[in-house]
Amino acid sequence: MAAGVRAFAVACALLAAAPAAAEPVALTFDDLPVFGPVRPVAEQAAITRKLLRGLVRHHLPAIGFVNEINLEGADRAARVALLTAWLDAGMDLGNHTYSHLSLTRTPVADYIGDTANGEVVTKSLLVERGRTMRWFRYPYLETGPTAETRRTFDDWLTTANYRVAPVTLENSDYLFADPYDAALKAGQRRRAKAIRLEYIRFSAAIVPWYRSAGLALFGRRPALVWLLHASKLNADSIGALAKIVHNQKLTPVNLDTAMADPAYRTPENYIGPNGIEWLERWSLTLHRDLPWETMPKPPKDIADESAALDDEPVAHGTP
Ligand SMILES: [Zn+2]
Prior knowledge:
By secondary structure, the chain is an alpha/beta fold. The chain has one domain: Glycoside hydrolase/deacetylase (TIM Barrel, Alpha-Beta Barrel), CATH 3.20.20.370. It is 51% helix and 10% strand. The protein contains 12 helices and 8 strands. Helix 3 links the parallel strand 2 and strand 3. Helix 7 crosses helix 12. The radius of gyration is 20 Å and the shape is globular.
């Protein structure tokens, strides 16, 4: 067999052996510029650079949701530059309210004011680049405790030309991020590494669960929208997260592409105080159960430590 023919035969065999690509996934990062405790801006810049470098290297499109309250202070220009870095890296930005309010615990008029106040800087950065601000992500995924609150805010979002960014995949990254930051701050590098490994292991287990939950709900695998946070943990783990995406054969796409999946036109009418994800919302609408009994739980040591850190009177990151 001539070398060219042999190479062609090998290529065909490889193509035949390669599993078909699975469903698309869009990565979304909340609490920009950086999730977690208050840090010097140089540290925030290093985290942002590492996270963005990883996203670009692994061809992962992403959108970051900003809390503009986190830009305040003497280093404001340098913190705004972190948002610019997201856009320069080819990513998108959206609104996560100014001060990360809970719609369950905030009068809707105040919440609307805070959301309007939360777009000032981000919108101007987008407009400077000929782009528009289109995406809103609810803090705590709380969409309104009463029908009236929900309707009022939904109407405001429509008037302000926002689309809601849902969540159909999440790996409780915020639970791991606080103990990780605390271990690093205390100089406990081995503990930090152990937390990071637990995080990767849990993520590798929960991603297939969400895929199977989507399949159970729709009879096919819908595109996924993955909630993450702009944390040091994720900056240090982005290569491993990319590997999970790759191993699951998921196709990384931007949020617009994921949202073009007709699954995202499924109505969801959840009214209540809890911040629940969209697969659960749709399971209520469609009257179909999700396979909760097989859902992996975060490790107990992480859940306990995260809860203990939350009880401290120090400002910690918020999901
Ligand atoms: Zn958040």
